[in-house]
Design brief:
The structure is a single chain. α8 packs antiparallel against α10, α8 packs across α11 and α8 packs parallel to α13. The longest helix is centred in the first third of the chain and has 18 residues. The chain is built from 21 helices and 31 strands. β28 and β29 form a beta hairpin. The strands form 9 sheets. Strands 5-4-18-17-16-6-7 form a 7-stranded mixed beta sheet, covered by helices on one side. Strands 10-9-8-12-13 form a 5-stranded parallel beta sheet. With about 700 residues, the protein is of the alpha/beta class. It is globular and about 70 Å long. About 30% of the residues lie in helices and about 20% in strands.
Length: about 700
């Protein structure tokens, strides 16, 4: 589709910039600008529904703070420069480093990039920079569920079934997933299940909006979701309900472990009434199509992979995994969180969900890219370790579409690390907190200013169409990456005349991989969306991805016995973090959007408030071993008395307190949730904000 002229009046169909539902909009264009975004009733997922964030998305396009020219730091200040000077800085900054030690240059990407940009960023890091050190912020989202799925069935398509199947389930367990606020359009599928008589549980230490809609709520202690799964499996074995989906390795060990988790132990460790554990298990045993869906509440722990594994084992051993209307799935959060974890911006990955460690995969991509296989780097640091290495091992960092100053664990330490870099190059469209630290900021493109594809939480690939041009001197992100390759004198493979050349190369690059998109094209996606894998242009897509046999060495699944830490002491307050309905990720867009107001408060139980002498609106200081922050209190009976909740959309608050060093051994997910915290009353003058103190670990 061609770019609009300044006098056109037309409609362009594209996708929402926010969550992984990826609703479709018709953008009404007048005089080169969208004047209205209309949800489309034929959207294959949302069917015309849309959340408040999506409706407000147009407000960001011409925000007064929109970046429209490169900014270079001179005498401590970011000042406007032209592209020639900006790219000369890149040449002078990076060329000596790359010649001496390419791994001193790091790349940090995003789960919000289109598939084509994800592919190009990975290629840029490995072919142009030749650095091992690339990863992305999706490591903070779905990585634990991805790790559990990959090591169990060799495959990671978060939902291996169409979302519409949720309406056929007679029991849905939402484990750490507040979809009413994070993925609102799919609430219609929960309603469909309830209308058919289905039972829905929200398993969460808070009675969220989702819990109120679900009707059934269990509030286990933070970090004990996996123990609850083991307790249900124990009872399935006791009641004769073990009917494995297919033969699998590891079943005897997993079933033997379940013997150690009787209801009394599970109730004690989870902080739940034993009767509630038994009721949940009985309902699961009686359900014909039980469906388990995990979210970040279950996954963002140092044992998040094991938590997912416990629920996945339960679904598999009771015969529901991979069957329509039941089984297991993870609810991807970021806009292209699914595609973003498939095509090469992960530290150990090549396009098509290939492995950078696999000799055959390395040879395939080296031949495709026309580079010697020996020159492809080995896996480098994953996201958190990459940020932890900045200012020491890493001397220069290129960030595309991410804001780790807010979103990374141990944000205070990460901020100091980024300040210590010799060169911090940020590509973005608004001045995020990370961009404000940069030595060079390059103005990139927003969602409706670029072509591409995105892949939603059910593996559905859709077109994102360019409707308008980027303002001022801003450029499409894919062009900027090619500009950088040319600036460092390594243009080979980055000489696309048009975006279509890049897109067609991306589709071809996935051929033969687990995440095979090679049968797709812009023309095919104009006719209909498709769920990958799509292996041939004339072949079908794959709505159901998890039917045996599996893409493993022998076609069998491998179940693993999970391990969990000891439960926290009964009176220990535990910090958990999460999203609010009116905000998104690090808030770079939504905190600037006047239509998306939200309050940044510490949510605590009335008993906790009384114990600490706090009233609603009082300021409280929260302290962990990693940092300290101060903000107002919101008192709610909807949270466990041993839990404190903070939203993570604001700088200098939630992620000052989280642990940047303790990572999940399988996924390298930081321990965002489950941090011991203490509360101290703080006093402030009314109307005067308290700036949080940053305490470095």
């Amino acid at each position: 589709m061609t770019a609009p002229t300044t006098t056109d009046a037309r409609i362009v169909r594209t996708t929402c910039p926010y969550c992984a539902v990826q609703c479709t909009f018709d953008l009404h264009i007048e005089r080169g600008l969208p004047v209205r975004a209309a949800p489309t009733k034929d959207c294959p997922v949302a069917h015309g529904t849309v959340c408040k964030k999506g409706l407000a998305a147009l407000n960001d396009l011409r925000h007064p703070e929109r970046l429209t020219t490169p900014l270079l730091r001179k005498n401590g200040e970011l000042v406007p420069v032209d592209w020639a000077e900006a790219l000369a800085y890149v040449r002078d900054a990076l060329t000596p480093l790359l010649a001496a030690r390419p791994d001193a240059v790091g790349v940090f990407g995003s789960g919000s990039l289109t598939n084509e940009k994800t592919y190009l960023l990975g290629k840029f890091a490995r072919v142009a920079l030749k650095t091992a050190n690339i990863d992305y912020n999706g490591r903070y989202c779905m990585s634990s569920a991805s790790a559990a799925l990959n090591r169990t069935v060799g495959y990671d398509r978060g939902l291996g079934f169409p979302l519409a199947d949720m309406g056929e389930s007679d029991l849905i367990l939402l484990v750490g997933a507040n979809i009413a606020e994070t993925l609102p359009p799919i609430m219609q599928y929960l309603k469909a299940a309830k209308d058919r008589g289905g039972i829905i549980y929200a398993i969460d230490p808070r009675a969220t909006t989702t819990a109120k809609v679900a009707g059934q709520h269990l509030a286990p202690r933070v970090g004990t979701d996996g123990v609850l799964a083991l307790g249900v499996l124990h009872l399935m074995k006791l009641w004769g309900k073990i009917r494995p989906t297919a033969p699998a390795h590891g079943m005897p060990a997993v079933l033997a472990q379940a013997d150690d988790y009787p209801p009394a132990r599970v109730a004690h460790e989870c902080g739940l009434p034993e009767a509630d554990v038994l009721t949940l298990a009985r309902r699961y045993a009686d359900a014909a199509k039980p469906l388990i869906l995990t979210g970040r509440g279950a996954e963002q722990h140092a044992h998040g992979t094991d938590t997912v594994q416990a629920w996945l084992n339960l679904a598999y051993l009771t015969g529901h995994f991979g069957k329509p209307g039941g089984g297991y799935g993870t609810l991807t959060g970021q806009g292209n969180g699914q595609g973003g974890r498939e095509h090469g911006q992960k530290n150990d990955q090549l396009p098509g969900a290939r492995s950078l460690k696999d000799p055959r995969h390395r040879a395939e991509m080296a031949a495709f890219w026309d580079v010697p296989e020996a020159e492809l780097p080995r896996p480098g640091h994953s996201a958190q370790n990459l940020l932890n290495a900045c200012g020491r091992e890493i001397e220069a960092l290129i960030v595309l579409g991410s804001n780790p100053v807010v979103s990374a664990a141990g944000a205070g330490q990460v901020t100091e690390n980024l300040r210590a870099l010799k060169h911090l190059i940020v590509i973005d469209f608004l001045p995020s907190e990370t961009a404000q630290l940069a030595t060079l900021v390059l103005p990139g493109s927003m969602w409706c200013e670029e072509e591409g594809t995105t892949t939603n939480l059910e593996g559905r690939v859709q077109r994102r169409r360019r409707a308008i041009t980027a303002p001022g001197a801003a450029r499409e992100d894919w062009r900027i990456l090619c500009d950088l390759a040319h600036a460092i004198g390594r243009p080979h493979g980055f000489e696309y005349a048009t975006f279509r050349e890049l897109q067609d190369e991306f589709f071809r690059a996935t051929k033969g991989g687990k995440a095979d998109y090679s049968g797709l094209s812009a023309e095919r996606l104009d006719r209909a969306t498709a769920q990958w894998p799509v292996r041939r242009a004339d072949g079908p897509d794959t709505p159901y991805a998890y039917a045996p046999t599996y893409p493993t060495g022998d076609g069998l699944a491998t179940l693993h016995a999970p391990t969990f830490p000891l439960p926290t002491p009964p009176r220990q307050l535990t910090l958990t973090t999460g999203r609010l309905g009116n905000q998104y990720q690090s808030g770079t867009q939504t905190r600037r959007n006047a239509a998306l107001r939200a309050e940044n408060t510490a949510q605590i139980h009335p008993d906790t408030a009384r114990d600490h002498g706090l009233r609603s609106g009082d300021h409280v200081t929260l302290r962990t071993v990693h940092g300290v922050t101060t903000l107002p209190v919101a008192i709610s009976p909807a949270i466990r008395p041993d839990t404190v909740f903070l939203p993570f959309h604001w700088p200098d608050t939630a992620n000052l307190l989280t642990d940047p060093y303790t990572l999940d051994p399988h996924s390298n997910m930081p321990a965002f949730k489950g941090t011991p915290v203490t509360l101290l009353p703080a006093h402030s003058v009314a109307g005067t904000p308290i700036r949080p103190e940053v305490a470095l670990a």
